[in-house]
Specification:
With 180 residues, the protein is α+β, with helices and mostly antiparallel strands. The protein is built from three helices and nine strands. The chain is elongated.
């Protein structure tokens, strides 16, 4: 009788040991699939000294931080938990200062960044110039930029997601927002 009670225990032990694989390889982490909306745009045209087109699935919010200036806004993407923080300044002989401030803010992400690429942008026809900072890695902001006419207007933008930075999971949303 005692031996009959030991058989299920031995069978269970054999089953457990035989189920273990010698060459176990952990599965890669998966991410939630995001179905992006169709790209359609609307015009942001108010009393601000600048205009632009933004997606219909985003909305404009007034920036309410304590140092906010008159024309500072956020382009909010609620479904992606993202915002593009836009600030505007009048140039009064201080263009170099604004450009350096933008560069400094972009390079603050160096601690977490794998690389920072600068892409110069010129539209000679409209006399608008700027730089796009592509920040690679698990930085809080992976896209920052500025645009200027070099005489009167300076507009700066930075994309932030309201989630823990993870370059792999944020890559599709970054590409989607950046692509026109």
């Amino acid at each position: 009788m005692k031996q009959l009670k030991k058989i299920p225990l031995i069978a269970l032990a054999i089953l457990l040991f035989s189920a273990c694989e010698d060459n176990y390889v952990p599965k890669p982490r998966g991410y939630i699939r995001i179905d992006f909306p169709e790209k359609k745009y609307q015009q942001y045209d108010t009393t601000a000294p600048f205009t632009f087109q933004y997606p219909t699935y985003a909305h404009i919010e007034k920036d309410h931080n304590r140092n906010t200036e008159k024309y500072w806004i956020n382009v909010a993407y609620p479904s992606l938990k993202a915002k593009i923080h836009i600030s505007y300044k009048n140039i009064k002989g201080n263009l170099a200062e604004f450009e350096e401030d933008t560069r400094t803010l972009a390079y603050k992400h160096t601690i977490k960044a794998d690389a920072i690429n600068e892409k110069v942008w010129n539209n000679d026809e409209k006399k608008v110039y700027g730089i796009l900072y592509e920040i690679k890695g698990n930085a809080a902001s992976q896209i920052q930029f500025y645009l200027t006419d070099s005489l009167q207007h300076f507009l700066r933008g930075a994309l932030y997601f309201n989630v823990q930075p993870n370059k792999d999971s944020l890559a599709p949303a970054n590409r989607f927002i950046r692509k026109i």
